[in-house]
């Protein structure tokens, strides 16, 4: 997937400025596809020159005008082609897993440091799971009343929740194993 596709999806959900898109990436899309503000602005310029998006200048009182982007027909067709393309299984690259394997080649002090790192890492993911669960309660209080777009957003969020729960279970197993060494 290219950043362009994530931007197209976000803009089809709601047009917005580069700044607004960056905020959306930080709040939701960012757990599945990350991008810096600079990357988003650079890709938006390219998408605009390719005719995938169009910008509307919006005046703001006391602030510089902003450019709000929306998807064109060409952008919709591009996204539709991408949606039809097959998805290949992704290679898992997990730095912590390699560190855990590497713990076999260190001493007790090194394993103790790794134990502390796994504990810290687990706490971050526990907080992220809590954020996801709070967002689910806030944004999807009545799953039966959701429109198509909301139902699809919710199923992606549920995937994030399931992933975090699986990761926390695995990290508990790692901690138990490290403590037993």
UniProtKB/TrEMBL annotation:
<protein>
    <submittedName>
        <fullName>DNA-binding PadR family transcriptional regulator</fullName>
    </submittedName>
</protein>
<dbReference type="InterPro" id="IPR036388">
    <property type="entry name" value="WH-like_DNA-bd_sf"/>
</dbReference>
<dbReference type="Pfam" id="PF03551">
    <property type="entry name" value="PadR"/>
</dbReference>
<dbReference type="Pfam" id="PF10400">
    <property type="entry name" value="Vir_act_alpha_C"/>
</dbReference>
<dbReference type="InterPro" id="IPR018309">
    <property type="entry name" value="Tscrpt_reg_PadR_C"/>
</dbReference>
<feature type="domain" description="Transcription regulator PadR N-terminal">
    <location>
        <begin position="7"/>
        <end position="81"/>
    </location>
</feature>
<keyword id="KW-0238">DNA-binding</keyword>
<feature type="domain" description="Transcription regulator PadR C-terminal">
    <location>
        <begin position="92"/>
        <end position="178"/>
    </location>
</feature>
<dbReference type="GO" id="GO:0003677">
    <property type="term" value="F:DNA binding"/>
</dbReference>
<dbReference type="InterPro" id="IPR005149">
    <property type="entry name" value="Tscrpt_reg_PadR_N"/>
</dbReference>
<dbReference type="InterPro" id="IPR036390">
    <property type="entry name" value="WH_DNA-bd_sf"/>
</dbReference>
């Amino acid at each position: 997937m290219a950043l362009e596709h994530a931007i197209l999806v976000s803009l089809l959900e709601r047009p917005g400025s580069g700044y607004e898109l960056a905020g959306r990436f930080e709040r939701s899309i960012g757990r599945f596809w990350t991008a810096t503000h600079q990357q988003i602005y650079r890709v938006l310029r390219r998408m605009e020159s390719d005719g995938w998006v169009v910008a509307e200048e919006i005046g703001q009182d006391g602030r510089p005008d902003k450019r709000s982007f929306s998807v064109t027909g060409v952008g919709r067709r591009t996204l539709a082609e991408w949606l039809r393309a097959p998805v290949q299984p992704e290679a898992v690259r997990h730095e912590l897993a390699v560190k855990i394997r590497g713990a076999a080649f260190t001493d007790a002090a090194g394993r103790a440091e790794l134990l502390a790192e796994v504990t810290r890492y687990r706490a971050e993911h526990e907080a992220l799971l809590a954020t996801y669960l709070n967002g689910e309660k806030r944004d999807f209080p009545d799953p039966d009343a959701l429109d198509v777009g909301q139902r699809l957003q919710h199923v992606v969020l549920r995937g994030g929740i399931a992933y975090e729960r699986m990761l926390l279970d695995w990290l508990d197993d790692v901690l138990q194993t490290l403590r037993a060494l």
